[in-house]
Structures are given as structure tokens and as C-alpha cells.
Amino acid sequence: MSATTTAPDGPEPTHDATLRELPTEAGVLRYHEAGDPAAPPLLMLHGSGPGVTGWRNFGANLALFSRHFRCLVLEFPGFGVSDPTDQHPMVAAMPAVPRFLDGLGLDRVDVVGNSMGGVVATRFAIAQPDRVRRMVTVGGMGKAIFSPSPGEGLNLLMEFTEAPSRERLVQWLTSMVHDRSLVTEELIEERWAQATEPSTLAAARRMYSRAALEAMGRAAEASPEPPYWAMLHRVRARTLLTWGRDDRVSPLDMALVPMRTIPDAELHVLPNCGHWAMIEQKAAWEAVVLAFLTRED
């Protein structure tokens, strides 16, 4: 299967024009859709952090990818766009993916996942391998080998989550990029408004407070199941790992385990680039990902 359908040139996709709703038994899932409905489906899964949304992660990439794919940017529960959840956001994200695909009647997709979204995509590819044709991850997925864990960006995220302030938000946002000029006043205001919305902040604390992370660590130690990164050999999808060389949230050495253990994986490292590769090195990242997704089997 190759993505050969090209949509006619037209206006760039906008937030409001692409926003959709999918009612499910576990609440409404909201998403953005752009591209020809008959084109191969491309599921795009966002990361985590204060004020994150699928649109803020991938909205600027839709102009290119919607010319080749039916782009579906899922908004995970617990981040202020889809219906809220009482669950840990990572726990809620996992069943949201098959629920979303089932609701749209999609059996098999390509998946792009940023950070947490890459972990969700990987776990989905392990659990339901027949449903993922190709997978692209943007940082975040793997296991730190040489770098301290948690990394600098995650520590700043925990500090913001426990005691939100604009100063701490700016510190965290700055850790996400190599080029600090990307942290504009507009970005700060957007993220602050979303991150401090009560239900969104409560969900973030269930995920990124120090107590929550310590509890997750204890649960992982007690679990009879191996961690997902120890099961990467089960990924059957052809995989492209993309990484910012200067990522301070998920350092580059995290790529070593998935690069070596996913059977059909390749790694592309982008210089002068932090955690948001699809934003900070937009043109280079898009070129690499599009070539990978449209390459003949």
C-alpha cells in the first residue's frame, strides 16, 4: 500500500474547519480531519505536557500530509479537548486509539506519534500489529541508556504541574526547543490558558506530579508484565524513529534500544533541534517522514 492519492491544492487546513467529534461509549473523542477521505489514513497522536493538543503538535504539518493522506489528528482524553477522564491520561489514551479507529471503521493505518503519542503508538503496534502498517515516532519512545532519568524537561514539567506559574511554564517550554525564539508570547498565552483549565490541570497532576511518577515506578516494579520497551521486538510495522539531536526531554540515547530491537527500524536525527522536531525542523522532518510513508514496500 502506498500513499499515491494527492488532494487538489487549496487553502491550508484550519483549526475550526477540520475539527470533528466522534461519540463513543467512553465519551466524545474530538479530532481534526484533513485530506481526501479516500486517501490512505494517517493517524497522528500528540504528546503530553502543559497546554498540549493534537492541533498544536501537528496543525502546521497538515498542509503537506493532507495532500497524500486522510489525516486524523486524535485529541486524547484528559488534555482539555476530548471529553475529560478520571483515569491516568496514559491509561485513557491506550483504549482511545482502537475505539477511535473502530468508530471510523478503519482496520489499518499509518501512525505518527510525538513523545507520549509515540509510546501509545508503539504499544498499540505491539498489541494489535495487524492494524499498523508503518509507524513514525518523534522522540520520547525508548529507554535512557546514558542520560539521567527523568530528564531535564520532565523535571521542569513536574515542577510546573505541582505549582503552576508563568515562569515555570516558560522554563518548561524553553526546554522543549533548541531555538528559544520559538517560545513566543502567543505560544505562552495559548499554553497557559489550556494548561491551567481545572480538569486539564487535574489530569496533568495524575500523570506528572512526583507522587504520580513514583507510584507509576512502584507499579511497574510490581507488575508481572515487562515494560513496553522490553517488547519492542514484537513490533511488526516498518518504523521510522525521528529525533532532535538536542532533545532535553527525551535525550537521543533513548533511541538506541528501539533502533536495535525493532526488527525493521531506521533512525533519522535532526541537528539544531529539540523535542518538537515536527515544529522546529518542520521542512526537514516532513520531507523525511513523507518519503518514508510513501516508499514502495
TrEMBL record:
InterPro entries: AB_hydrolase_1 (IPR000073), AB_hydrolase_fold (IPR029058), AB_hydrolase_sf (IPR050266), Epox_hydrolase-like (IPR000639). One of its GO terms (molecular function) is hydrolase activity. Residues 40-280 form the AB hydrolase-1 domain. This is Alpha/beta fold hydrolase. It comes from Nocardioides oceani. It comes from the Bacteria. Keywords: Hydrolase.
